[in-house]
Amino acid sequence: MVEGPCLAVFAQRLRARVLRGQAVRGARGGAAPAGATAVSEERTSVHNFLTGHVYRGVETLGKELFMYFDQKALRIHFGMNGSMRINPDGSRDRNGALPVLEIQLTEDTICFFGVTTEYRNAAESEQKVRMMESLDVCSPKFSLLRAESEIKQQKTRMLCDVLLDQTVLPGVGNIIKNEALFDSGLHPAVKVCQLTDEQIHHLVKMTHDFTLLFYKCRKTGSPLYKHYKVYRCRSCGQCNGKITVCRLGQNNRMTYFCSQCQKADPQLVNVSKLPARNSLIGWAYGRGSCSNEHVAQKCEEEWTCMCCTLINKPSAEVCDACLTSRPEVTETQNAGDSAAFNINLMKYPCNEFGKPSTEIKINRRAAFGTTTLVLTDFGNKVVLKNDNQISDGCSECAGPKSNCDQIHNNVYQSGRSMDKHSSTNVTDVASPSYQEPFSLKPIKKKQKTHHVPSVHQYDVASGKPQVNTTDDNRMIRMGHPHCSKHNRLCSLRVVRKDGENKGRQFYTCPLPMETRCDYFQWADLHFPLCNHGKRCVIKAVLKIGPNNGKNFFVCPFGKEKQCSFFQWAKNESAMQVIP
């Protein structure tokens, strides 16, 4: 989803890579309609008047991007899935779509995909940006006081509607809305008139804080989903309770909230006792100190491949998809990142990069190949030696001998259960603590099978990686086939195009479009047939009530042709609903 922080990154790329003062050599727009092989001349001629005009710069206001050409301003809205490419190798995006707008300057070419465009007067657009920039959550001139004043004027409106109103807080999208309300401890249906001044101040602050985190993740290529507490999550990131998913507000936008952590009665919310999300809240306003020890350097961050845009692990030297080498990081970049902490990625619990002090690696022979079991002790601060994997069940240990003996005993005691429940995914298991001087904290163990590619497998419904292996997750994975060419666990997708198959789920190769094979398999062959004899689609109850979140089967046709077929999905743990 393209929200304000994404547009701020797009604008920075344009300022950095496209020089101002270039003349427009040509402009064409409008993707070819279905069945056509070329861009329509009628739609292409709409942008012809740009030819000869000079590019003066770019500005953003919330979810709007303004490009200035002499006295004209081109307003671009990226919608849900819009994107931008500067000097692309080809004329299509990763999904094979043609650009909606292509602007050819003297030295550069800019392509926009999945966007809507509109021409306006440059002076009026600049005036609008000046008037609203103090409300823009992505602007350096953002004013907490003015934002609070604007929200207080929306007395009878629900918070879920106020936060998404681009005339109140430009740049806030559905992700920021859900996470900010969670951090504030407020139910989305609460009205502004029910809040105190302190709660409104905290809500604005949490909205701005998560926006900064959103921006930093998009700028550095770090995955944002690791910081989700409720958005597209099945369980709450704070209390592990069930997340309620519903359509709420004037525009029926998808809303995620935890009924235990977010109170419908604001009087029950004590701002001073709300749990802090992370240390970003402190340093964002300069109210706390930040040591370089808690700042991740470039070489410790997850990195994005320049070719296929796959996000790789910090330890990966080459891209897991296209085998492109990792971009080199100079010492000056690392030093600069540590000095300027205010623009750095903080070490949150989910991306802590500290090295363990004790590590044991044991190889086991499993049914599907050799499995490496890695046990680490984070409690002792002893410098690690280089560990080498030893085959045939042998192991090597670095660290105090007493710790190693304890870990070995723990391994042998749990060996039988490990053989029964071996898995190819990383699993976190806590071991009991000991009362000896070198007591161990919960041991993290990584289990990895050599022949399985080390890629993240995502849960489509929640948008989060499958890390903890549970019985429900295993049931879901059992149905996922592997693609024939790359032998990778397939991705579950849904048909979006209009037609008789719209809404049906299918499996396809998980790699990007450039390297994806042609594997295809329907995933709904076990779904029942409706009264028309068509394969049903699975949906979830979004109304707030006792059945919220339950899955059911209905006719795949629209409301006009839809039959009366209805059936609850019995085995919900093995079902996935793709929003």
UniProtKB/TrEMBL annotation:
InterPro entries in alphabetical order: DNA_glyclase_Znf_dom_DNA_BS, FPG_cat, FPG_N, H2TH_FPG, Ribosomal_uS13-like_H2TH, Znf_DNA_glyclase/AP_lyase, Znf_GRF, Znf_RanBP2
Domain FPG-type as annotated: residue spans: 229-263
Domain annotation RanBP2-type: ranges: 299-328
Main location: nucleus
SMART domains per the UniProt record, alphabetical: Fapy_DNA_glyco, H2TH, ZnF_RBZ
A GO biological-process term: base-excision repair
SUPFAM superfamilies per record: N-terminal domain of MutM-like DNA repair proteins (SSF81624), S13-like H2TH domain (SSF46946)
GRF-type domain span: 483-526, 530-572
Keywords, sorted A to Z: Chromosome, DNA damage, DNA repair, DNA-binding, Glycosidase, Hydrolase, Lyase, Metal-binding, Multifunctional enzyme, Nucleus, Repeat, Zinc, Zinc-finger
Residue span, Formamidopyrimidine-DNA glycosylase catalytic domain: 2-221
Subcellular location: Chromosome; Nucleus
Top EC class, one word: lyase
Gene3D superfamilies referenced in this protein's UniProt entry, alphabetically: 1.10.8.50, MutM-like, N-terminal, Zn-finger domain of Sec23/24
One Gene Ontology term, aspect cellular component: nucleoplasm
Pfam families: Fapy_DNA_glyco (PF01149), H2TH (PF06831), Zn_ribbon_GRF (PF06839)
A single GO molecular function term of this UniProt record: DNA N-glycosylase activity
Family, per entry: Belongs to the FPG family.
Name of the protein in question: Endonuclease 8-like 3
Gene name of the encoded protein: NEIL3
